[in-house]
Specification:
By secondary structure, the chain is mainly α. The protein folds into 2 domains: 14-44, no CATH class; 57-260, no CATH class. It has helices at 5-14, 35-38, 44-53, 59-71, 80-90, 95-104, 113-128, 134-149, 167-179, 186-202, 210-220, 225-250, 276-292, and strands at residues 21-24, 27-30, 33-34. The chain has a 3-stranded antiparallel beta sheet with strand order 1-2-3. Helix 4 (59-71) packs across helix 12 (225-250), helix 5 packs antiparallel against helix 6 and helix 8 (134-149) packs across helix 10. The longest helix has 26 residues, at 225-250. It starts with a helix and ends with a helix. Bound molecules: coenzyme A (COA). Coenzyme A is lined by residues 113, 152-159, 198, 202, 206, 209-211.
């Protein structure tokens, strides 16, 4: 039985449905606002918020989001994603391909600490809802977190920085926003409780790093953990682009991860002469041994 043509057209129109943008000849509306009224009026962080949340942020929310985006842009070529973008350029990749290569390695292991940390904060919040104080809630949530993500808590400790220089200014802004009633301050308290439990357990400071502090901000702003990762990648894309562009200006061809005069470590069979006959004999002997065994 052939379908009613009107039903086919209706179905085709519904194939993609979006509440983000409406486009007609000469008209582009973002979340209902004509684009010409947004251009020159709202900032990029406000635009990001409008796109992903549906409404414009308050000034305080936009300030916090912007601070988190500013703080995460780069951590230098020791970060594999940054190195990859530079190496890709030296292999002749275009900027978009270099950026895609770099972004593709950002996941649970590299760049995923913020999302994991946001999940942990949510777990702690659930445990604290049972009337526990925050540090007890951290202790109660820890096994659940560690079962999912392993023993190390994302967002705390750092390979390079005894104290991450990005944390204090970010948390300072959260405190200001909490005092102004822009956010609740619930997640900064949770983050601090995690820091103090980890530090007590390890008998040495395990301070909150950039992922832990941006996790505080994204959680205070009501973002879900996977969106936290998306926002981090948006920010880090700026660093990835800048390094790709700088490498393009510097030139350089097929640069590997280390200068050629620094050897990698070979762990295989020591150098030996190739003798096909001897080789065949060894294979035949091995086969015979296996048959006998
Ligand atoms: C960066 C990192 C690898 C440093 O670990 P490290 O080199 O072992 O650091 P330390 O020597 O200071 O660790 C001392 C102890 O604290 C533990 N520790 C360190 N960071 C920890 C964390 N975030 N959660 C739980 N335990 C931690 C270590 O496992 C070690 O325990 P051990 O003595 O039982 O082996 C680690 O802190 C980490 O992986 N942090 C989370 C990842 C993250 O947020 N990455 C993004 C960084 S911007």
């Amino acid at each position: 039985m052939s379908e009613d043509p009107k039903a086919i057209i209706d179905g085709a129109e519904r194939w993609w449905s979006t509440s983000i943008i409406d486009v007609h000849p000469g008209e582009i509306d973002i979340r209902g606002y004509p684009i010409e009224q947004l251009i020159g009026t709202i900032t990029f962080p406000e635009m990001i918020w409008l796109m992903v949340r549906g409404e414009l942020p308050t000034a305080g929310q936009a300030r916090l989001l912007e601070a988190a985006l500013v703080a995460s842009v780069d951590h230098g070529p020791h970060a594999p994603s940054i190195a990859i973008s530079r190496m890709a350029i030296t292999c002749g990749a275009e900027l978009n391909n270099a950026m895609a290569s770099a972004i593709n390695v950002l996941g649970d292991v590299h760049g995923g600490a913020g999302q994991q940390c946001m999940e942990f904060y949510q777990m702690i919040r659930r445990h604290a809802a049972n009337g526990r104080d925050l540090e007890a809630a951290v202790e109660a949530a820890l096994p659940e977190y560690q079962e999912k993500h392993g023993k190390v808590v994302g967002g705390f400790g750092h390979r390079w920085h005894p104290v991450d220089p990005r944390t204090a200014p970010l948390l300072g802004l959260v405190e200001e926003a909490a005092a102004a009633g822009e956010v609740t301050g619930e997640y900064i308290a949770i983050g601090r409780a995690v820091e103090s439990v980890l530090t007590r357990k390890k008998s040495k400071p395990i301070p909150m790093n950039i992922d832990g502090s941006t996790a505080v901000i994204f959680s205070e702003l009501g973002f879900e953990p996977d969106m936290g990762r998306g926002l981090f990648i948006l920010s880090r894309s700026v660093g990835i682009l800048s390094h790709a562009w700088e490498q393009k200006q510097q030139g350089g061809r097929i640069k590997g991860p280390m200068p050629k005069n620094i050897p990698f470590t070979y762990t295989g069979t020591r150098r030996r002469s190739f003798d096909r006959e001897l080789d065949q004999q060894k294979i035949a002997t091995a086969k015979a041994d296996r048959r006998r065994a």
